Amino acid sequence: MTDLIIFNAIVCIDACFTQKHNKRSHKDPPRQHPRTVFLPESDVKRWEEIVASLRPPKTVPKTAAGGEAREDGYELSLKVPNSVLDACEASFTAADGSREKASTQFFDSTALMAMLCRHDRVLWLVNMTSPGERQHYALALIDQLFKNLPSGFTVGLLYDISCSIHRSCVKWGFLDAYLSRLTFAISVFHAYGHGWACQCVYHPRKCDGFGLSDGEGCERFWHSISKLIAYLRICGHHTRLYTLDSQVQYADRLSLLGIGNWLARKWRNTQTRHLEADTQVISSAKQDRYLCEQWKSQISSQTRPLPRQTKNAGRSAVEEAICLRKVRDTLRDRVSALEDVLSDINSEDYQVAEVEGKLPDLREQLLGVVGQQQYQHLATSPFMALRMNAHALKVRLRNRLTSRKFERDRIERSFRWQQYNDRKVRTQTEDAVKRRDPGIQALARQYNILCHKMEELVRLKRAPRNAIAPQPIPLKELFDLDVDDVIWQDVGLDASGDIENPPAWLTDEDVKSGIKGILLRDRCDEELRRLKHECIALYHWLSEEWQVVNACIEAATNLDLVYQLQERRRCLIKLGVTWRNALQGIPQLYNVSDWGLSASELSEAEQDLDEEKLEAVEETEEYIEMEDEFSDFDEDDLDIGLVERIDALEDGELSYGEEDLDDVDNLL
């Protein structure tokens, strides 16, 4: 078990491109919410200028002279090679290319970007005005966060493209003052867009300190305000911002009341997963320290930079083969000539002695050259052909699955938000995904067939020495794209495993299972420790608020102010009762059963809550009865002519008399 790392705060960032605003010739009168969560436009503009001044425009990398491509490596202190980071950036760029539809020609606000804490409470929002997702918006949010935190606070940041923004910060010096206290990770449900090497370093389940935080709080917030999309698209600019601020304040009040249930639910889930992880580690029969060492070895091996590649690699290989053949023929002639001297009975003693001294070295050189040629001849062996085909199939399959996941993500968002304007797009996308699923499954079956053939060649010893057959992909897990699925592993598809003593993390299934278990157990331990601290923070906050409100009530002389303070006091009592009841199953570091409130006040508040629940149940039953009555209504009994007249009356097209009103009353 590793030493637990607990960040002082965990936040997530994401953008929503459905929250646009139509461009108008003029803006409505200024109107700002007293508790606005929007960053000032001046701060966003300042960061846009900083990024433009420090980072030059992107250019296509040029190949070096002689066909040499740019050498792969690490960017300063980063742990992921540039080739992997480039692939991640290209993956999300291709998937989000359609977002350019938010043209500034038709929209003055193209999207929203939000920063939320891990409890899904909005910290700040940014009103985006560019057609795409630019880094200066995220940098402005991060800068605003650290300005409002103590100097020693550490922060864990979850973002869809954290690897990209981390590289920019390291390379161009963004947020230099905060980088030592900031740890980047990718959000769980968008990890499929990143390569395995990137996930090893940036996935929150593999990265210390993030517990079981998933980084998808922004998605849940976008869903909660989706009902406002149509209205916010056409209302005034300042009215739009004010409405969003009001919605955020309303969501915060609901979140504060339900934070106890949220913590209790997280606690139960973490306990369950901790038990599963313990079982996994125990079943591996390996020591914790050994598993941690194997995981470090795996990261070091699978995040190595790619070897230098050239355009003339094929030509160089041919020239090398021709050169080896010439050397082989020359050595064979020399060895044959020396052996003739040894076999000749007329040879002088000094000649025999000289030959005996040279012959062993020449034979060793000849064996080395022949061995290299035999290694090159493996390229024509059946196993190597199967390996190359399987690797190409798996890369293609992985790309197809990633593209499908991006499409499915769009479908799920559209389904949840029930947007009328996207129904046609959703239907077309669903049809396209359904058409592609059989093709993806066919690729997986072909890959599994190749894996079984390679396994058979290894068993028959017709494969290179120390070669490992790749693991087939379970078809049931094909579309999950979980971080530990086989689809991400290229073990057996390259020469990295063709070594004399392959590491245990590569060949031992118990070690593989144990590594997964110990990583999950560490995350669960971090989560449990954080949940306990959050429970205590709730207690301290409520106790302090309670003392302050009571002191203000005693000192206040204005009746209006006293009334507001008493309302605040009743709200705190309700919070205390709700939190205490919800958190009874979580062990506390010390006794906080009273939550700073008296027994009589708690009892009275519990009675009020019971009455509210009873009223809610009665309202629900009445609503169900109304639905039952409406379900018995037969549309065939409608007078169609009367309905048309009612519609016309609503539009002001007809005048009506008493007879018409009587007909309407009878209908109702």
What order do the helices and strands come in, and which of them pair?
Layout: E1 9-16, E2 21-22, H1 41-54, H2 82-95, E3 107-109, E4 111-117, E5 122-128, H3 135-147, E6 155-159, H4 162-172, E7 182-185, H5 196-202, H6 217-224, H7 229-234, H8 237-284, H9 288-302, H10 313-343, H11 349-377, H12 382-417, H13 423-459, H14 504-507, H15 509-555, H16 559-582, H17 599-631, H18 640-650, H19 658-667
Helix pairs in contact: 1-3, 8-15, 8-16, 9-15, 10-11, 12-13, 15-16, 16-17
Report a brief summary of the structure.
By secondary structure, the protein is mainly alpha-helical. It contains 19 helices and seven strands. It has a five-stranded mixed sheet, with helices on both faces.
What would you say this structure looks like, in words?
This protein is mainly α and 668 residues long. The protein is built from 19 helices and seven strands. It has helices spanning 41-54, 82-95, 135-147, 162-172, 196-202, 217-224, 229-234, 237-284, 288-302, 313-343, 349-377, 382-417, 423-459, 504-507, 509-555, 559-582, 599-631, 640-650, 658-667, and strands at 9-16, 21-22, 107-109, 111-117, 122-128, 155-159, 182-185. It has a five-stranded mixed β-sheet with strand order 5-4-1-6-7, sandwiched between helices. A two-stranded antiparallel ribbon has the order 2-3. β6, α4 (162-172) and β7 (182-185) form a beta-alpha-beta unit. α10 runs antiparallel to α11 (349-377) and α15 packs antiparallel against α16. The longest helix has 48 residues, at 237-284. The chain is elongated and about 130 Å long. It comes from Lentinula detonsa. Keywords: Coiled coil. This is CxC1-like cysteine cluster associated with KDZ transposases domain-containing protein.
